[in-house]
Amino acid sequence: MASSPCGDGNFDCGLQIQTRSVEQTLIPLVSQITTLINHKDKLKKTEKTLRAVQRVGQAVSVAVGRFVAVGEAIAAENEDLKDEMGLACFEARRAGTAIAQLTDVSSLEQCEGDGRSTVFSDRTGMVKAARMLLSSVTKVLVLADCIVIKQIISSRNKVLVTLEQLERVSTFQEFVQIFSQFGNEMVEFAHLTGDRQNDLKDEKKRARMAAARAVLEKCTMMLLTASKTCLRHPDCESARINKEAVFQRMRLALEQVIEIVTDTRSGGEARALPVSIYAGIKDFKVKVEGLRDSLYCVSCEAVAAQLEALVEKTEDFTDSAYTSHEQRETIIQLCQITRQETKQLINTWRHAQSLKAKEATDEMELSILKTCQSVSDLRRELHRVAVGRATELLKLHSDHLVLQALKASGGDGNLEAVADYAGTLNEHKEQLVETCRLLCHISGTEPLEITCIHAEETFRVIGPQIISAAQTLALHPTSKIAKENLDVFCEAWESQLCDIAILLKEINDVFEGRRGDKKTYLSLPRPGKHSANLKTVKAAKLDAEEQTTIAKLGLELCLLTSDVDSEVERWDEQDHEMVRLCQIISSMAYSMYLFTRGEGLLKTTLDLFHQAEVRQHSFSLIGFLIESVRSLLDEDRILILSETEKLSDACQQLQVCAKTPVQGKSAIFQKVDSSIQNTKGILTVVVYLLPICNKLIRKCKSECSCLASPQHWREKQLNTTVSEETLNGNGSNGFGVKSLEQHMASLTFLESK
């Protein structure tokens, strides 16, 4: 096992492959090596066969040589990796040379006459060389991957230092200067962690990383407004509490990112997810059904104890004050039925054991079926209760009346009213926290469980922060900064409610076996202070004729999103960057289709226009395509660039349309029509590009030799330079820091507010 070369964290990278990039780099090599060692023992040695074997062996040797050169360059740039990387490169070069010698069989005479060992005569030697090559190359890749981890740790450390400086500032001028630096550092950290998130193999780690990055994204804006409020009102206790909570949450999220990339916990102990009811039922059924294969694989006592643990967890449902009497009685009854069926199973099981039976008896088989059916019925009821509760809460909170009342009371300086509405918000928070806990029990996958836990923590933290921000506004009702701060926290609450709605759909998809049908955009924009045209457009309802027209357009949009999904399914690499961006664009278009049906999260034309304004993923796709065509042949490059230009035009037209202020019902209808038409134009180009790009990628892969890509891999993974575009917040993996520029521009005028 390799020791930890990353220094800043006690972890052992070993030879465990954690990322897709390392795995994908190894696949061609494994394929070529397998070709060499899996030849038939009595293979007919024709001239054609010998030339093919020699060609493969030479390709492996040349590719290893290029790969080792990259590894040695990495070692030269990183002193703490020099010895380990040097040894791994030496072993890889030696193994590559051995394979070249064993496959040097250009003629029949040479193969049979000189007595030298070849791949045909010394298969053991070939296998040994192949193992050494795979081991050493893997070690080089894993060590190189440690440099990526070092970069993330280093970036986190820079952010922490600047975060501490921000927390101590006492003047606006100093704050403007340090926050500008902090914004750039956060963008760099966002890109590094975004790439890492997409590269991780483990779904749970990807979900945890996504949750931590979501916290950092939202907290960056909160930190800005909370700090401004504290600077403007330095003696306000509620403003100080509000600010400290944001800084604390950012530190915890930064720490979580490092725990994920280093695969350790700061306390030295791994944190296990609490066992959900779904996971418990799944494991229980596996044990019960396993009795068909062996009556002695598990004890009767263990099965009975596991069932009792499951029943105890259902108390989260039955003890809830928000569970109806009917639902409570149904859950208790189903638990009792499951107990009875399990007891009957244990009786027949023990009887079969007493008869020394080697397999389940017919009576026992019937008990197994009944037990599994009863526990499945329990799971179905729990799912119905949790999803029903969540759906009701989302409807209840869709109008955000409590948030509006807090804003109004704070603006009026009415501390008593703020306290009353704060109590109501606390009740809502507790309901949402408990609902997230119930959803976690029935979510169906560990990544969704992690998302539920993240949502629970978010509501638990943001609720008190909204209250402290409202208290600050009530104490300083004329303060524009305090009002802006409350708006930001309320928007974060509304955004989390939107994410819960999407999470609910994903949980239902898993329950009904539709997992993966459509990956939903998880950052749906909501109306807020920072949108460009919020004050110039009023929400409007369409009449029946207009709705019919829009419904037809929506149906066409829906068909295009289905076409995108169909094309995406044909891709071998479902996690490819282009697939990811196209799925997000398709999902945002699908939400516009739902609007035409009067469904989904876009309730008014105002919501639709805000949705249309957000085109960063379309522009990210344009940037990706332009960057990707550099290595293509002229004919392919011209085709891709031509379609990219059409995509760019459609995106710009949509953005201009969305930002153009309009007055009057007729003008609003025309704007809705244009927004959907332009979105159709974007999807049409995407549907055309997906199969072309997929074909080009497959063609490129088939033409590449086994290790022709280490330089590209190194450039992609180890590039430490942050481009000017990245620092401006234009990259696809950023935290949305570009939106802070509007605030940064006004920081020098804060004292006039």
UniProtKB/TrEMBL annotation:
Family per record: Belongs to the vinculin/alpha-catenin family.
Primary location class: cytoplasm
Keyword Cell membrane: no
A molecular-function term among this protein's GO annotations: cadherin binding
Record protein name field: Alpha-catulin
Cellular component GO terms, alphabetical: cytoplasm
Biological process (GO), any one: cell adhesion
Entry's localization field: Cytoplasm
Lineage summary: Eukaryota, Metazoa, Chordata, Craniata, Vertebrata
Keywords on record: Cytoplasm
Coiled coil: none
One Pfam family here: Vinculin
